[in-house]
Amino acid sequence: MLNSYVYILASQKNGTLYIGATSDLIKRIWQHKTGFYSGFTKKYNVKLLVYYEIFSDIKEAIHREKVLKGWKRNKKIALIEQTNQEWEDLYEKLL
User: Fold this and answer.
1) Beta bridge partners of residue 17, listed in sequence order
2) pLDDT tens per residue, the chain (95 residues)?
3) Angle at the Cα of 46 from the Cα atoms of 45 and 49, rounded to 5 degrees
4) pTM (2 decimals)?
5) From the centroid of its chain, how far is CA 66?
6) To which H or E segment does residue 94 belong?
7) Residue 82 burial (CB count, 10 A)
8) CB-based burial label for 91 (10 Å; 0-12, 13-18, 19+)
9) Which domains does the chain have, with CATH numbers?
């Protein structure tokens, strides 16, 4: 079974946030980090993987992404800090 993910990237601690969903987290975060695609994360230098959740179905991940995007900023920050208080980049731990 293929896992799917919802993730939050940040430009820095308490900085600009980006929420996405993917079926290949390592590849997708690499794309953000290298600026592979031009867009929001490249423009605002949003490259730190500060939070992610794992799902068994991409539809669940996409639903969760939409839910998180609807949250106010302070609630998103509280979610990140529940598991990553220092806002460290979790990407290296995935490799």
Assistant:
1) 10
2) 689 999 999 999 999 999 999 999 999 999 999 999 889 999 999 999 999 999 999 999 999 999 999 999 999 999 999 999 999 999 999 98
3) 145
4) 0.96
5) 13
6) helix 91-94
7) 9
8) buried
9) 4-94 (3.40.1440.10)
